[in-house]
Fold this sequence. Notes:
four-stranded antiparallel sheet, seven-stranded mixed sheet
Amino acid sequence: MSLPTEDFLVEIGTEELPPKALQKLVQALADGLQAGLVQAELAFGEIKTYAAPRRLAVWVKDCQLLQADKRVERKGPAKQAGFDAEGNPTKALQGFARSCGVEVADLIEIETDKGTWMAFEQTVQGQAVQALLPGLVEAALAKLPIPKPMRWGSSDVAFVRPVHWVLMLLGSEVVPATLLGKPASNLTRGHRFHAPAEISISHAAEYAVVLKAQGFVIADFEERRELIRQQVLALAEQHQATAVIDEELLDEVTALNEWPQAVMGSFDQDFLAVPPECLISAMKGHQKFFHLVDQDQTLLAKFITVSNIASTNPASVVSGNERVIRPRLSDAKFFWNQDTKGSLDDFLPQLKTVVFQQKLGTLFDKTERLETLAVKIAKPLGVRQELAQRAARLSKCDLMSLMVGEFPELQGIMGRYYALAQNEHLLVAEALDQQYQPRFAGDALPNNELAQSLAIADKLDTITGIYGIGELPTGDKDPFALRRAALGLIRIMIEKELDLDLHFLIETSLKLHEHVVFSEALVESIYDFIIGRLKAYYADQGVSAEAFEAVRVCRPSHPNDFSKRIEAVKIFAGLPAAESLSAANKRIQNILRKVEGELTEEVNPQLFETQAEADLWQALDTLREQVSSQIAGRHYTDALTSLAQIREPVDAFFDQVMVMAEDTSVRHNRLALLNQIRQLFMAVADISRLSV
């Protein structure tokens, strides 16, 4: 029989919440409440969240009203220890009965695999959900990810922002509770200006509908987000323009508005003489404006802002925003004009005043290391040395500019503009920008060899330096973003098919750090750290962890070579012979591991005692030259496909031959044969690790 259910709603009303944390906070509240309901063994339906600037709310549909009764069994002492020789209860058994609140006669016997035990069994009546909900909500609130809780007034209550009301309804009934210093009620509040009075919610399911109709609040974050998107796109289209919607900005704007109204504004055309990225940063970063472009993707002197009020005088809202953005754009124009009065080289001396890392020196020291390292990387890629050296020399100069000082996200971008303004080589200018790519997951990679060289050098210098002084990432703490840098540089090498020796580059980079003690162990440790980033990278492409490990244990020094091996293993795993040969390699590995001292390199066909040995040797000898040639040419797929042909003679060998023969010479000969097979496979990958 199904138990009765009812909808439950909790809303925490606050002052304006931090916009970038809004979604994380409400999801954490929902997750905590869900976990509490599960632990309390209460069934429920869909859980829906609501998040707006002044409220966090969770609606639990069809929440079970009463916990089911359940039988609880408590185990006591063994029967043998519970009674003495005369059959009287011992003190241990009497104490157990008292702890259960019953007499010894009320206890039962239970049979276990270890004998008979005394126990107490009772039915625990389920509690009403109304009594449980305050504690569940309080526990969920206590676990919210709030870095710096606030206290306000004389209260000891701490929360992300001051709390003004709490709404808790189970169906139509208020859940009696006091949370965060506020008694729960069925009252909420609407828009701060359009509907500031209290609003009564008669049923949990009516919350969002009533708030929207009476309170001028769209509580549903996703609904509000899409409304803003459509308003912005439609308004731009009305003005024959295209709005560029950055998803992170859209999230932030959604978190700032309860009743969004998109309005169009404009600014002086003169500002368009400034690089568009500067104007966009000013509009997005300071005012949360969406910028507009024409059909050629050229920035227009217009913007769209989202107001949190349906004004009766929209023109005043527009003029207010235009008045506010003008000084921001004027600052950007001033920075541009000042920065371009000199050259990038003028910023070089200032790099000596900025510490990159205390033990690794200044940004100028880093620049000098990059000059050496970028040239080493660029040489095998066919890049002219003077271009690589020049790009490295200027790589950090724009960090000292006024523009980047105000808008740090423009690092590299402004380097490109300033380089072009002083007529640097186009490839040098592009490298100054692209050295930071990929900036985030899915970002584009540097598109030419010079930019790729500088990007790899920059990331490698940071990794080897920080790793070399022992500042390794731990858990989710990675202040120098070494993981991102490692994945970025290895993606460049693989996806741009650059034939670079990672071991050599790590050694070269380490030796450039004055205060890092070089060792081969450190080189290998950094190699492992960088290559380790590839596990998740390949997993996203459908490569199994086993396939990744099969290649990783061979420690290819060239990441591009690593990638070719991964592709070969993926294809090999789909061949009919893969399962048998993987098992055979595992068997060979286990045998060889136990007899390392008995291994010899040469195989003597004269010592064969069975046809299976001779057949396997013949098959191996026939394939050896072809496979070695394929491996030398990095045609790993062809090599493993060729090696798949020895499946039958390998199977026959293990069926018919006793490897560990009593005759020492015969045993050593058979081990040598297996070792040659193993080494040939290992020249590509350790296929014994595959579970196919």
